Amino acid sequence: MVTQSEEILEQGLIKTLQEMNYEYISIKEEDNLYANFKLQLEKHNRKELALHGRESFTDKEFDKILLYLEGGTRFEKAKKLRDLKDFQLENGERVWIEFINKQQWCQNEFQVSNQITVEGRKKCRYDVTILVNGLPLVQIELKRRGVELKEAYNQIQRYHKTSFHGLFDYIQLFVISNGVNTRYFANNPNSGYKFTFNWTDASNNAFNDLKKFSYFFFDKCNLGKMISKYIVLHEGDKCLMVLRPYQFYAVEQILDRVQNSNKNGYIWHTTGAGKTLTSFKAAQLVSELDGIDKVMFVVDRHDLDTQTQSEYEAFEPGAVDNTDNTYQLIKRLSGDSKIIITTIQKLNCAVTRDYYNKHLQEVRNQKVVMIFDECHRSHFGDCHKNIVKFFNNLQIFGFTGTPIFAENAKQDHTTAEVFGECLHRYLIKDAIADENVLGFLVEYYKGQQETDLFNEKRMTEIAQFILTNFNKSTFDGEYNALFAIQSVPMLLKYYKIFKSLNPKIKIGAVFTYAANESQDDSQTGMNQGFENEKVTSDELQCIMDDYNEMFGTAFSTENFSAYYDDINLRMKKKKADMEPLDLLLVVGMFLTGFDAKKLNTLYVDKNLEYHGLLQAFSRTNRVLNEKKRFGKVICFRELKSNVDAAIKLFSNNQPNEFIIREPYENVKKELNELAIKFKEKYPNVQIIDTLQSEYEKRDFVLAFRDIIKKHAEIQIYEDFEPSDSDFVLTEQEFADFKSKYLDITVGVINPPASSTPIAGEPQLPYGNESMLEDIDFCLELLHSDVINVAYILELIAELNPDEENYQQKRQAILDTMIKDAVMRSKSKLIDDFIRENVDNDKVGFQQAKADGSMDLESRLTNYISTARNRAIHDLAVIEGIDEEALTKYISEYDFLQREKPEIIKNAIKAKKGLKLMERTTMLKRVVSQLRDIINTFNWE
């Protein structure tokens, strides 16, 4: 059977779109693109032009429009697309130009084209382009059936580097497909393949087949709505985001209910599924509806932390009521603000106290829509009742990842009783299947079981276990961990035990004590573990003092909220200049509403059940990268029956095999099966040197990549022992094959300047592109963050050139780097650095170590800077190109983290006597060498 080709797939898609009333337009190059855009823009704005007796723009007017569209970043262009442009015609009259109709999104001009050729750093032809009013707003990249879908994603990332410019900077959405798998994502370069999404129906059934996907997603009204309403311009990060299908359906359900009834409702979207984005898009779109006076987003005070506030501000600048002053909320409610974010506690204060609510009598009778975050948390007590009773024309909606049902209702009411019907479901099993969150690896401690849980011997054994196994669980500290403890007295005892063990990791603790408690804590459960127990501020201050000494801060119980926020940031590892916290001891805080992608492990010595259990477990399962394959939970209590019950309840009693990872023995068996199959084809590492064709190398890379993934998965299990003789592939064999794997990788990332095809090798299916360039090498799985500049400097500082084994230790440093996927390109630089600073200056090196004046970090920084400048200078001399242009290119990359090849293109244009082909070849060569410089000299 012949595999369906990319061309047949392309023609089939175009035919489908034509059947859906898309106009096909042949556009071969950019001049045709601009000509078509002029015609479509005039057609779309014909009514406005007719008011001025016109049917078209003059060439000069159109040039001015293009000049306006050309300026700004990709983010700023997305704003221009959505705004009306006040434009002056040549005769002085002013018109309002509309680039897209956001309100009647079906009333836009939809076209489809294919194989548009664009001349950038290299000439590229794009597969299928959807144009809306003449602008290329959707780009579709196709691969033939059987090809990894990620190859299409990688192709688009290359287009970002090589050719996207001009009107193609207005692309809003990308779609990738190999016919049987299809995904979409926003134009946000390098956000990662994990941020590509399936389209589904409202019941979360995926439309993977391209034709089925097209009929639903590319329906003109649906696509127009997605672009107009469901792409979010994230002000904080200055990037485009697009809603996933379950977010889309949830917002649509809320809009429908607001427009067509006065009924309430709630959204059940599992923890980690992007509730903030969904709820804010709902608030934003509800606020645009006729007849809606105020939209309020209401959160619990414990959830409105610094990070949450910044996220809210990113979506709706100026909307967050983040002061402690209730009167400020009164002013916003009685003023022009249409969207307001506040806490349920402050809102309760505003409506219950006469001093405040006398100012709210007008808004009391207005149409108000409230959206409650985590609607099971604070909505079964008096606060919620007071708010609902106060407003006369109120409609409420709740969001929750863990609803309250009869089974887990400790309070008197269920979520449905308070909020009404569930409008949309997206369960944890759905999110794991979609790879929007991770599953859990739950392991149970096999140590001594004491009946007295407060027994010091038991607690010391657990603390020692955590310290001993911390690096294994967190990949040598690349991630961090929470330790959930039953009560504050127990936490204090654990903290003292950890201190007595002289840990090498940074440990902190946080809990609620009497002075930072509030009257609503009994409803929210945030004081769980210290009710009726005497805990003084002095005990918390002692922990704060240790924290201050560790990080150079100055927190006290008087500014507890600042301490909390600082812990929040360190646990999230958001700031490069902020030293992270490795392990945080908690009782109730941070077990709900806290999202940190760098957190991967939860230790539990606490009785958890139902929503509390799933909320706590879900702190670990945020998607980050290939290395983080699941959230790890280690229970020091017998919680298996509670885990099973919680998973069953929040999977809506449906099969949940995806949620809890397989036991160790199963994964071990899977790894051995892969290894047996692998060694049948590659019995020894030497055979890899005989592979010549790209097809042979590709087969090896794909086969070993599967082993890399399974190896990364198994090594985080507590039972994993690298020296286990039951493994078919020993750790030494794995390391040897990994070295060959990395050699091939380097050959792809930094190919030789010229290469001759091997005689008889089949023609590559992607034109001149290397087959290997489209492969995801999973390099992040082979890189340990512990092997960074600080680690290497630590090893160098330990060198003693007078020792007999100096050369072995010196070589061991280089070998450590060579074995790492990221650091190996920098190994020669470190070799030269050691030669200059140690080998050639033994006396000075030893003296500096002895008197404490050794500052290797400053030496290395200066050395790298000098070496990089020398490399830039040498490249400028060899190529005869302006050195300032090369320096600017690298500086721009340092700042923007993306290439700007136009800088080099302009520098090459300044060279006289070069033909077009020579310029193109030179551009490719120079940029390739600049990439080498960046890879070698840029250190995180």
How are the elements arranged and paired?
Elements lengths: L5 H14 L3 E2 L5 H15 L1 H5 L8 H12 L3 H9 L1 E5 L5 E5 L11 E10 L3 E10 L2 E8 L6 H14 L10 E5 L4 E5 L23 H8 L2 H10 L1 E4 L4 E4 L2 H16 L4 E5 L5 H13 L6 E6 L6 H10 L10 H9 L4 E5 H9 L1 H4 L3 H4 L3 E5 L9 H9 L3 E7 L14 H5 L2 E5 L1 H6 L6 E5 L11 H19 L5 E6 L2 H13 L6 E3 L11 H4 L12 H15 L8 H13 L10 E4 L12 E7 L4 H8 L13 E5 L4 H11 L13 H18 L12 H21 L16 H19 L39 H9 L8 H13 L8 H11 L4 H10 L4 H24 L3 H14 L5 H8 L6 H22 L3
Parallel strand pairs: 1-4, 6-7, 11-15, 11-16, 12-13, 12-14, 14-15, 17-22, 18-20, 18-21, 19-20, 21-22
Antiparallel strand pairs: 2-3, 4-5, 5-6, 7-8, 9-10
Helix pairs in contact: 1-7, 9-10, 12-13, 13-16, 19-20, 24-25, 26-27, 27-28, 30-31, 33-36, 35-36
**What structural class should be given to the helix and strand makeup?**
alpha/beta
Count up the helices. Answer: 36
- Look up the CATH topology of the largest domain: tt1808, chain A
- Could you describe the largest sheet, including whether it forms a barrel? 6 strands, mixed
